[in-house]
Amino acid sequence: MSPLEKQSKTALLNPVLLLLISLAMILPILNIVAKSFSGAGALSSGSVLLWPSDWTLSNYATVLRQTAIWRAFGISALVTVAGTLIALVMTASLAYPLSRTEYRERKGILVLVLITMIFHAPLIPNYLLIRSLGMLDSLWALMLPGAISAFNLFVMRSFFQSIPNELIESARIDGAGELRILWTMILPLSKPAMATMSIIYSVALWNNYSNALYYINERALFPLQVKLREYVVTDSSDLANTAGDIANLSPEGLKMAVIVIATIPIMLVYPFLQKHFIKGMLIGSIKS
């Protein structure tokens, strides 16, 4: 087979493979959305696939009337916004000194950070640590344990290393300290990296429910993902019983509505940061 024939087959195979992967991800989402807008009769008969049948907004109206959902939504939003800001500050504060060659201890600290990527602490030591710090039944337990991701730290460090050292030296000559250099010069030049880290941290914080299951016992502090798990894993017929239109509601439709509501915020944020996200993910892939 000639190289030209191999190239033509590869050019044909790649779009087909990407199309199949895209369908494998998109079709389940379409099925969930279709079921969330379908009535109880259509769902019980199993006739809903990719398009709603027996259109209704009762599932969303019932879910949005629940005060527990709004409380959990607010907690998730607070944890996501505050946790992302904390993570960005802490990651940048550690990545900057590790990117400077004049910091002699950087190699030893980088080795310690790399170890955390390979070996993870078991659940029980983590729980004992959180308890000893007094963070049980506190929102801090949802934000601080993952404030610095080793992978994100290495990505941000690589971006800081790409900034010309002459800029930093000129700022030092003008009398600027390290903190001022970081916050007024380095970070404004690092918008692609910061946008990438923001998406990664915010998605992780929004979707994380394991920490809430382990460290939060008070139901009033449950985030949205824990509520979503309760409705998906357990029976959600109690929601249907609280609504007036019981005949057109089903537990399955209510579960799908909760899933859609929990997914919308991240889907709305990502398009605005997509350009910076793609640029940030290419950090370190091209060497001069």
CATH superfamily: MetI-like
Q: How many domains, in number, for the residues?
A: 1
- Tell me what the CATH architecture is: Orthogonal Bundle
Shape: globular
> Under the CATH scheme, which class?
Mainly Alpha
Number of helices: 15
User: What separation lies between the terminal Cα atoms?
Assistant: 35 Å
- Residues in helix, %: over 70%
Provide keyphrases for this structure.
288 residues; mainly alpha; MetI-like fold; 0% strand; cell membrane; transmembrane; Carbohydrate ABC transporter permease
Describe this structure in words.
The chain crosses the membrane at residues 12-34, 68-96, 108-128, 140-160, 181-204, 254-273. Belongs to the binding-protein-dependent transport system permease family. Keywords: Cell membrane, Membrane, Transmembrane, Transmembrane helix, Transport. It is a multi-pass membrane protein. It contains 15 helices and no strands. With 288 residues, the chain is mainly alpha-helical. It has one domain: MetI-like fold, CATH 1.10.3720.10. The radius of gyration is 24 Å and the shape is globular.
Topology:
Layout: H1 3-36, H2 40-45, H3 58-64, H4 67-99, H5 106-118, H6 123-132, H7 140-143, H8 150-162, H9 165-173, H10 178-186, H11 191-207, H12 210-215, H13 224-233, H14 237-241, H15 251-281
Helix pairs in contact: 1-15, 3-15, 4-8, 4-11, 4-13, 8-11, 9-10, 11-15, 13-15
